Amino acid sequence: MKIVSLSSNFFSVSIWTLASRILGFVRDILMAAFLGTGPLAEAFLVAFSLPNMFRRFFAEGALNMAFVPLFSKKLDVDTEDAHSFASETFVILGTGLLILTILAQICMPVLVFSMASGFYGDGRFDQAIDLGRITFPYILFISLAALISGILNASGKFKTAAAAPIILNIVLILSMISADFLKLEISLALAIAVPISGVLQLFLVYRSARKIGFELKFRLPKLTPDIKKLMMIAFPAALAGGVVQINLLVGRQIASGTEGAIAWLSYADRLYQLPLGVVGIAVGIVLLPDLSRRLISDDLVGAQNAFNKSTEFALNLTIPASLALILIPIEIITTLFERGEFNAYDTKQTAIALAIYGIGLPAFVLQKVLQPIYFAREDTKTPFRFALIAMVLNALIAIGLEPKIGFISAAIATSTAGWSMLLLLWFGTRKFKGALKFDSNFYKKILTIIIASAIMGICILLSKESFKFYFIDPNMKYFGLIYLTSIGLTSYFFSRYVLNFLFFK
Questions:
Q1: What total number of domains does the chain contain?
Q2: pTM, whole model, 2 decimals?
Q3: Which pLDDT tens digit goes with each residue over 83-123?
Q4: 181 domain residue, yes or no
């Protein structure tokens, strides 16, 4: 069994993900400045969400959660057989996505209506249809890239797969700058840039996969026994991914009735996705193939240690990040987005959503730790059942609260459903043996994280008032956020150092 270093790979994937998310912030800052929260911004955001919705449905949900464990197990036995299986999967996936892309071009008005019925009857609807037809082919390229990234991750080659998403943000940033310089329509430039970035990402990961021996062999799609097994496992995962997307659809439908709300939720979503991506996704990517190998070899002790280390790593960064999003959302949004077409009212609305997403952040991250426990055992049905329960809860809260509190009900529903899903996943693991027992030091470590985060929160609150004047001056707000961030990081890590010395000396 090939053993990989969890800590080093967590760090490697996290660094590349962090770089991608920082560039994503630059992208969003430019988008907020150029487009604000107006009709063109909302039309593009809906158009861009269409291929991303199906990407999460196929690539990140059904495909990788089912493919990576099967491929990892084959890789430990016969490399050639594993690569042949991967090539077969590539052809099947590519064929299916090509058909989907063609159908989407025909049915784009229906897709846009399903995403944002509030657009119907105004200019945003037609704009979203036009932009959606341009962006949708992205699903074909990015899903195939995700498959090859799964091959790289299972082979212990995490860096290229983690770095590939940077391309999307670079291409989108360049498209906006170029369009502004040439006086072209920025929303159209963004839409064209999306599929171009997909092609470039696919090229990058395929080139890396070839270096480890993977050669794509084009053939007619064929339902081999391995492909049939993959589909059997993938189908519940796909349904679970579909449930998650229904939650997002409910949120967008509610938001589409309020002008600007889709943009507010989207910008807030981008911010809480930073720690989620840097920590949660990194843990999920590294943990799944490692657990698959350990479980197939009956290494329950190793699986338990991997789970403990993953959970500690996740909470070490997630809890303080969550607290920061809750305590200083106004300061974060003001600094990052409030310029150009993005005004103070947009800041206030986005900050409310961000604080609520911050409450749900630990749940979203810990889901990424618990789900591989199921997927490594080829159990995709249980997470699907849990996702259905969370979906019903999400819809009830979002729709039920919307008449009283408006679009913000979507954010409340998302965070509540996130915590519910986490609890269900946790209780569901009781049927597994050996992989979910915390060692004697784990609880002490978690306690130090909570205490250190509380100290950090107090320091931020005390400093927030002192630095208030920084956020009034547009030229000084960057320094204000840097100061608050520095105080938070220093107080947290110093407190953790002292507490670790006291508890673990």
A1: 1
A2: 0.71
A3: 888 888 888 888 888 999 999 999 999 888 887 777 777 77
A4: yes
